[in-house]
């Protein structure tokens, strides 16, 4: 009966993950803490209302220390003597570099991407570690992306998401540092690449790019 906290659950992958978790038997997943900035969206609230005994919303802005610390305390109050088994760091941003060129990437986009995607993930993980230490599974899942791959960088060079790509590459290293630091305590830290949400701007961009490329090939 795992207890799981998921950040970034307002929409997209985070929301879908909560949906799929509560579809599992209670014997597998007993409680899901859905973390999101501010109040829950209508879609998340509908899910909470449907599974009121298994889904609890907790406000958490990953770029704010006080907010994350309060979220951890709220989750702890619900768990009582139990620990948290799994933390899923899903919250993140992928800002668009409208110029497309690395040299003209606005500094604020890069800074903001690191604040949310790297520092924010560290902030949440650090705050929830005491709860995870009391859990049985001690699993932390960080949301990565193939766009963070240095080997595949040229494959995705057309995507104007340099700030996102760079921050997610840094996330991979942070995940490894956490894994090494807590291996002797039975922790598992993993980075996964779940693909692109159908609601994301990047998915629309990539789809149009593929269509354009294939049309050009057909015309030639």
TrEMBL record:
InterPro entries xref list: Fungal_SecMetab_SDRs, NAD(P)-bd_dom_sf, SDR_fam
SUPFAM superfamilies recorded: NAD(P)-binding Rossmann-fold domains (SSF51735)
Superkingdom of origin: Eukaryota
Residue ranges crossing the lipid bilayer per the database entry: none
Gene Ontology CC entries for this record: cytoplasm
GO terms of molecular function: oxidoreductase activity
Family recorded in the similarity comment: Belongs to the short-chain dehydrogenases/reductases (SDR) family.
Name of the featured protein: NAD(P)-binding protein
Lineage per the UniProt record: Eukaryota, Fungi, Dikarya, Ascomycota, Pezizomycotina
């Amino acid at each position: 009966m795992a207890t799981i906290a998921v950040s970034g659950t307002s929409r997209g992958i985070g929301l879908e993950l909560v949906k799929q978790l509560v579809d599992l038997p209670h014997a597998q997943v007993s409680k899901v803490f859905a973390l999101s900035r501010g109040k829950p969206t209508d879609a998340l609230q509908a899910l909470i209302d449907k599974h009121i005994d298994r889904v609890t919303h907790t406000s958490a802005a990953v770029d704010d220390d006080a907010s994350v610390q309060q979220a951890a305390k709220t989750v702890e109050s619900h768990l009582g003597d139990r620990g948290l088994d799994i933390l899923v760091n899903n919250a993140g941003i992928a800002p668009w570099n409208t110029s497309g060129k690395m040299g003209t990437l606005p500094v604020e986009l890069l800074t903001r991407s690191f604040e949310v995607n790297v520092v924010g993930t560290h902030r949440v993980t650090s705050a929830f570690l005491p709860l995870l230490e009391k859990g049985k599974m001690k699993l932390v899942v960080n949301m990565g992306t193939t766009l963070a791959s240095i080997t595949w960088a040229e494959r995705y060079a057309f995507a104007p998401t340099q700030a996102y790509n760079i921050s997610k590459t840094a996330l991979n290293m942070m995940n490894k540092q956490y894994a090494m630091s807590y291996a002797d305590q039975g922790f598992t830290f993993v980075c996964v690449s779940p693909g692109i949400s159908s609601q994301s701007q990047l998915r629309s961009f990539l789809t149009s790019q593929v269509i354009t490329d294939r049309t050009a090939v057909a015309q030639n």
